Amino acid sequence: MLAAPSRSARRAPVGGFVARVLGAGPTGALAALALVDAGWSVELRDPLSAEALGQRRRAYAFTQSSRELLERLNLWALIEPQLIPFDQLQLWDLGADRVVAFSPADLAPRQARSGSSAIGWIGRHDTLMPLLLRCLAASDAVRLQLGPEAVPDPEASQRVDLVIAADGPNSATRSRLGVGSWRRTYRQACLTAEVSLRGAVDTQAWELLRPEGPFAVLPLGERRFQLVWSAPTGRAHQLESLPASAFLDRLAGVLPDRFQIEDLFDQPRAYPVELLIAHRLHRNGTLLVGESAHRCHPVGGQGLNLCWRDVAVLHQLARRVTCGQLSLRRLGDAYGRRRWPDLLLTLLATDLLVRIFSNRSQALLPLRRLALGLLARWPRLRRFSLAVMSSGPCAIQGSAPE
Question: Is the pLDDT of residue 39 over 60?
């Protein structure tokens, strides 16, 4: 069993500031740990029990921006052994019949200096969440309130300096604050399944761009792979309900010939896919963090990494408040200014990728072939593109094409 940091190893609160984090999923839990590292005391609430929080069966792709945040919080050494690194990312447009391979040589200089040969990592939710919760339980600065009986009426709660809403895309906190949102539901759903494959390599991840939607193949080690299959909503739910043998037959019909399916390890599950952005990121001493503020298409594995970049900015600003460099009442405005460019550009980029590549338009094929051909031939453009995917469009210094 992994050991959490000892209580003495965690930084004790010195600034006297207290935050309440609503939602203890991966983003809420990490936000609480970031606030503790910044010298705050934290009350973390979730209506789900610790056991229920860790039961979700899915995998996440972690990019360089998430690694850098975990290193700043002294959590990378704990979490890295539970992750599966990949040193090749294959981007394959099946409609245009073009393949681009990203490798460690395409990392930006700052990322390459980290000493890791990986360009990304894959981790399981059911491994990540228990570890984050153990780290929280080990801190004297955190008060955990998990389970239905542990979430009191917000109106009767003790006053705190800051509230962090990390309670998901259907955020009750956002609704209570009267913050509206713009949402667009895609005509696709996302189907996840864990399989074993022949023809795939444990150190490679694949993003297959298919006319009906992107299809990710993510390595989990020992020839196991997490599939993230975007398909028209009706078809995805139909696939979800099939017996295992029939599902594997359908899967074999859509995967390229190089992938040979051997076994299915879980029940496929379909989830809705949507684009969501809140009209504002803060109100009345409450910040919206993670999917309570935004949601994007899973193409490129941007979802959790975008949420954790919210946490990275929160961590930086909370430290400035603790040190007296930023007033508490200005924290919300500073958070919004720092996050809006990354959020809008990332949501726009993922939406454009889906619109351009998830269609059968013959008119777009020359554009797609040209774009992937340039990526394949021009190393500086691959470096620029990988930096955008890894750290967001607002953190690409030193990686732009010359």
Answer: yes
Determine, yes or no, domain membership for 198. no
How many independent structural domains does the chain possess?
A: 1
Going by the DSSP 8-state scheme, the letter that residue 39 receives in this structure is T
52: phi then psi, degrees, rounded to nearest 5: -65, -35
Whether residue 38 lies inside any domain: the answer is yes
Beta-strand runs (E) in 28-149: 41-46, 59-62, 84-86, 88-93, 98-102, 120-124, 142-146
Largest CA distance in the chain: 62
pLDDT of residue 117: 80
Predicted confidence at residue 112, as pLDDT, reads 58
pLDDT in tens, 265-296: 989 999 999 999 999 999 999 999 999 999 99
How far from 283 is each of 171, 179, 321, 332, 366, CA to CA, in Å? 14, 8, 18, 8, 46
- CA distance linking residue 96 with residue 80, whole number of Å: 36
**229-246 residue pLDDT tens:** 999 999 999 999 999 999
Residue 234 included in any domain: no
Query: Domain residues for 125?
Result: 7-182+274-391
Q: Model's pTM, two decimal places?
A: 0.91
Question: Residue ranges of the alpha helices (H) in 95-146?
Answer: 109-112, 125-137
* pLDDT tens readout for residues 212-233: 899 999 999 988 999 999 999 9
Tell whether 226 is covered by a domain. Answer: no
**What one-letter code names the amino acid at 50?**
A
* pLDDT score of 400 more than 60: no
What is the C-alpha R_g of the chain?
21
- The Cα 27–Cα 196 span in angstroms is 29
DSSP 8-state secondary structure symbol assigned to residue 12: P
CATH classification at residue 343: 3.50.50.60
